[in-house]
Amino acid sequence: MIYRIEGYDPKWRWHGLLFGSDSLDQLKCPTIKEPCTFYFTKYGWKVMGREALTLTKKCRIWKYRIVMLQDYSFSDIVYRDRFQIALKKYRNITS
Q1: pTM of this prediction?
Q2: Which residues make beta-bridge pairs with 72?
Q3: What local confidence, expressed as pLDDT, does residue 43 receive?
Q4: 62 vs 80: CA distance, rounded Å
């Protein structure tokens, strides 16, 4: 199971949210040339995702959602580490 926090903006529709906090500083920013979408791994959600959700609520973003994916193809994985996973964005899997 992988997780993503998305907020709603009328201009951009649903988009990924990530707020700065001490635990989120552990996330690596890999250089990836193809379009992809980042998700928390199960471990990353326990360590960082819940804190990011708390910050989302504190910032008074009224419309947000948690996207959880259980089935994804290993051929779609662009990047993976202990906390996060990036999947190819050629499919519209978050709508």
Answers
A1: 0.74
A2: none
A3: 94
A4: 30
